[in-house]
Amino acid sequence: MRPLALPAFLCALLLAHAAAAHAEWIVDAEGGIVYEDNLTRATRQADRRSDIALAPALSLGHYFQLTDAMSLLAVADFKGSLYPRFEGLSNLSSTVTLGVKHKLGLGAFAPWLRVSATAGALDYGDNVRDSSVVGAAVQVGQRFSERIDLQAGYTYETLNARNGVFDQDSHTFGLKGNVALTGAVQLTLGYSARLGDLVVHKAPVPGAAPAPHSRLVNTFDTPLVALRIDATTHIFAAAVSYALTPRAALNVGYEYQISIGPLFSYPNNLGRASFDYSF
User: Which residues pair with 248 in a beta bridge?
Assistant: First the structure.
């Protein structure tokens, strides 16, 4: 948990300086399910594995309005993915994020800029995948009307795993738009491109020499070779959120992910449904 030390120190320092500012607690809980049809990120149909995961999440944080134009957010996130079929893939992530948002003008339609840093840990059932997580992000956005807003951003993330095959560095560029269809229903459409390391899986070839950055794993129901490659992943996403009350919402979403490596492509379809509640 050493990656949490610096953000925790910075969080305490910033909170101390912001104590006199207007502040409020943030407590958000989520219960969801996620289905993926290519968890192994395999190119061959025979090597692909699918499963449904339970996906609970909890966010605890503090929001500070430092000035009319600037705010600070310090939040701890706890997220789980629990796979009944592949227990070794089940994981819990614990992260701390510090973010500063600045409005570049006056009024509800002024553009804004947010910068943030994240650090934490990923704990898997298959402990060779356990990783520390460090990341940074820059986002810009603007509301164009009472119903439409757009956001664009860049995220850098690095995972330092217990086994080097699962180390990952990535750069992600994204664009997202939100449209309020009614007072209670919101549609979100997005596209992002992730460039960097990707762990894919394939069946072992008897007698073949081990490839660089590879390892035989038993995470799935048959032994597969985990292989770290350089790939570009295109992600197309759509989601609908229905507000039940000012604090509760139901969400459904779909993502099509296509990763393109040096030789092959690795498709994945992802569907999710969740219930969110803000205390």
Answer: 277
What 8-state DSSP symbol labels residue 82?
B
Bridge partners of 180?
186
State the pLDDT at residue 107: 85
Looking up tokens 């129901």, which residue turns up? 221
**Among 77, 43, 48, which residue's Cα sits nearest to residue 60?**
77
**pTM, entire model:** 0.89
Neighbours of 141 (CB within 10 A): 17
The phi and psi torsions of 182 (rounded to 5 degrees) equal -140, -175
Average pLDDT on 155-178 reads 97
Do residues 211 and 227 touch, judged by C-beta distance below 8 A?
yes
d(CA 188, CA 143): 14
Burial 42-53 (b: 16+ CB within 10 A, else e): bbeeebbbebeb
| Residue type for position 46 | A
Question: Which residues is 78 bridged to in the sheet?
Answer: 58, 94
User: Tokens at residue 35, please?
Assistant: 């289905």
